[in-house]
UniProtKB/TrEMBL annotation:
Residue span(s) of domain Glycosyltransferase subfamily 4-like N-terminal: 61-240
Domain spans labelled Glycosyl transferase family: 254-406
Organism of derivation: Fluviibacter phosphoraccumulans
Descriptive protein name: Glycosyltransferase WbuB
One annotated GO molecular function: glycosyltransferase activity
Length: 440
């Protein structure tokens, strides 16, 4: 223990120096890219190079689901779309589900291209400078008129530098802040040199982008208050759905007294709070069934909690399922509960599974955090679900009891949920801004 603290004291100054060198080096590279642009580059109107950090089928997550949905919607909106995943991906990810056989693959009409090098397993400054080249090559090959990169800064930095060298607009799609997510799992990470560097670079990209797209109003407020981003250069690009790809559940297949959840099994998702709430209801003689689809670092702890609370006949863990199979589990559930805890990351980002549940006509039970209230705000005073006090199992138990008391109210909220998703969280409502921002 003493040796560990001593090593920490010795290493900290070097980490601080690394942070300064990285940030200042990237600022220098940015200024140089602007000053030494490519001459004679003539782009094609309304064409976009989109750079995501990961994609299907190599990773199945909310991030990759959103990526494919955004791309499909941009193509549908008339954008001349070209995709290059982060250089080095997916070969430099040990957790990839499969290895690509070729340098490009087509999925639902979207062609994802990949560049083998550079691997991101190197200092960030080195990676950013080296990864500019394959991005520039793809941009020049397709003569795009703008480059858009999605979170996080590791993915976005080389795309930003490439856009500046080509003299074309750069859009940043900020889907969250990885540093805040990590703090929810590793509290000691907050205030570390890596934490400071990550947030500083996110702010640098946000301020440098010609257009900043934020996943929520709360994240937009964070960018304005912490980094001084000009609100006039910012637009909302929340999690949405294409209504044609989601159907409202047939009431005949919905199983009564069931709660659905599909997503990562992480501490901040709050599933332990939900399990404790079910235990309280069982003590009152109210039996509800919970279906959990997904996997993650707290699955073992959740299964152990289920056993100690004597809920093994009510709580079912399905593990990781294909997206279409997971959707079927949700369709058969009466409601969907997303019991996120009040960590900072949960206060600025909502999961895409929220709007997908709404699109399937599922009333939702969510914490009373402002970001969830923003997401469920309707033109009327009605809400397509219920709120509970974040992190409070007793309050959640009371809300669940209320939700399952009246079948007629459940039916009304089901209709409201679908209508809200179709009208207020339709991709075409938001990607139009990206199309309009592309030079003609």
């Amino acid at each position: 223990m003493i040796l560990g603290r001593l090593l920490q004291k010795l290493v900290t100054p070097f980490r601080a120096l690394y942070r300064v060198v990285t940030i200042e080096g990237l600022r220098w590279a940015y200024a140089r890219a602007k000053a030494n642009g490519v001459l004679g580059y003539v782009p094609e109107p309304k064409s976009l190079l989109y750079v995501p950090a990961s994609c299907l089928p190599y990773h199945i997550s909310g991030y990759t689901t959103r990526t494919h949905a955004v791309l499909s919607s941009l193509q549908k909106a008339g954008v001349r779309l070209h995709v290059l995943t982060r250089p080095g991906y997916p070969w430099d990810r040990a957790d990839r589900l499969q290895t690509p056989l070729e340098d490009s693959a087509e999925r639902d009409g979207i062609v994802y291209s990949h560049a083998h090098t550079p691997s991101h397993h190197r200092p960030l400054l080195m990676y950013a400078l080296q990864a500019v080249e394959p991005i520039m090559a793809a941009a020049k090959q397709h003569r795009v008129t703008a480059i858009q990169a999605a979170s996080n800064h590791v993915n976005a930095l080389p795309a930003l530098l490439a856009a500046r060298r080509l003299g074309i607009p750069f859009f940043y799609e900020m889907r969250g802040l990885w540093e805040l997510s990590r703090v929810s799992r590793m509290p000691d990470f907050e205030g570390s040199e890596a934490y400071k560097q990550g947030l500083a670079l996110e702010g640098f990209i946000a301020r440098s982008a010609d257009r900043l797209y934020v996943i929520s109003d709360e994240l937009g407020r964070y960018a304005v208050e912490n980094w001084g981003v000009d609100p006039d250069r910012m637009a909302l690009l929340p999690n949405c759905v294409d209504p044609e790809h989601f159907v409202s559940a047939d009431s005949r297949v919905v199983e009564p007294n069931t709660i659905g959840y599909a997503g990562s099994l992480l501490d901040y998702e709050g599933l332990d709070v939900l399990i404790r709430a079910l235990a309280q209801l069982k003590a009152e003689g109210i039996v509800l069934n919970l279906r959990i689809v997904g996997d993650g670092e707290v699955r073992g702890a959740l299964e152990a909690l289920t056993r100690t609370q004597r809920l093994t006949s009510q709580v079912h863990f399905f593990g990781r399922l294909a997206p279409e199979v997971a959707r079927e589990v949700i369709l058969r559930s009466t409601v969907v509960c997303l019991p996120r805890k009040p960590f900072e990351v949960c206060q600025i980002v909502t999961p895409i599974k929220l709007v997908e549940a709404l699109a399937m006509g599922k009333p939702v039970i969510v914490p009373d955090l402002p970001v969830f209230q923003d997401e469920l705000r309707t033109e009327s005073s009605e809400v397509p679900g219920w709120f509970f006090k974040a992190g409070d199992a007793a309050d959640l138990a009371g809300v669940l009891k209320t939700a399952f008391t009246d079948a007629a109210v459940l039916a009304e909220k089901s209709v409201l949920a679908r209508a809200h998703a179709v009208k207020m969280r339709n991709w075409q409502r938001y990607v139009r801004d990206i199309y309009d921002q592309l030079p003609s």
